[in-house]
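hi support,

uploading two proteins for the ticket. first:
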Amino acid sequence: MDNTLHPGTMKTLLIVYHSMTGGTRQMVEAAAHGAALEPAVHVRLLLAPDAYAADLLEADGYLFGMPENLAAIAGLMKDFFDRTYYPALDRISGRAYATLICAGSDGHNAARQVERIATGWRLKAMADPLIVCTQAQTPEAILAPKVIDPDDLKRCEELGAALATGMSMGVF
C-alpha cells in the first residue's frame, strides 16, 4: 500500500548515496540522523550500487547524496539513476525528494542533473539542493579524505529532519 497520502502511518525515507572521500557519507549520515528523529519515518541508507528500482518503489520519499565529479553527477550515482529510471517511471510520481552534493568548488551542474531526472520522475523537490563546497582544487586535495564542517553537517541534519517531518505530516 502506498502510504504517501495517508498521514499518521509509517513512511520510509530512502537515502541513496555515493561517497569516494567521505564527505558525502558524512552529509547523508547527518541527514539520516535528523530524519530518524521523526518516529513515524523509517530511514533506509543505501550505497548507490546497492539500490534498485524496488527500493524506490517501496519508499515514500528520497534523499540523493553525491559528490560532484568533473562538473557532473558522480558515476555511481549516474549508474543508479540509469538502472532505476525506467523501472520507476510513472510509479513514484508526486513523492518528495531532496539532494545533498559535496563539491570541490561549485556543485550546481550536478544539482541540475538530479533536478532533470527528478522532473522526469515527477518528484517534488522539498528544498533547494544543499551543496557543500570543500574548496578542494588540487589532485591531492580532491582525492584526500574530507572532513565536513560542523555547521554544514547541521544544515544536512536539518534538511533530513524537515523532509521526514513533512513526510510524516503528509505535507509531501
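and the second one:
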Amino acid sequence: MRLCGAPHKRNGFDGLAAKVQQMIGADPFSGHLFIFRGKRGDYLKGLYWDGSGLWLIAKRLEKGRFVWPPIVDGAMVLTPAQFALLAEAMDWRRTVAPPLPQQPALL
C-alpha cells in the first residue's frame, strides 16, 4: 500500500491514475493499493488494479480525521497492519506491539 497526497474530491479512476504516475512515478496498474487523503483529513480514496480493472474505493468519516504520516518523496509504503489501523481512523503511530511472552523456566 502506498500513501499519496491529496486528490481533488472529483478525481475518479483516470484522475487518480494520472496522479499516481505524475506524483510518485509509479504504475497505477502494478497491483499496489494507492491511498489518497482529502485536504481536511476526513476522507480517503483508494485506487487498486486487480488484473481485470481498476477499483476505486472511498471512506468518509462522520467525526474525526484520519491520522496521516509525514509523506517523503511523494509517497509512503504501509504494512497491511498499519493500513488497517489507518482505515479504522486509529492513530497507528502510537500503537505499540505487545511484549513477547516470557519463556517458562525449565526445571
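thanks. also noticed: DSSP finds two helices and five strands in the chain.
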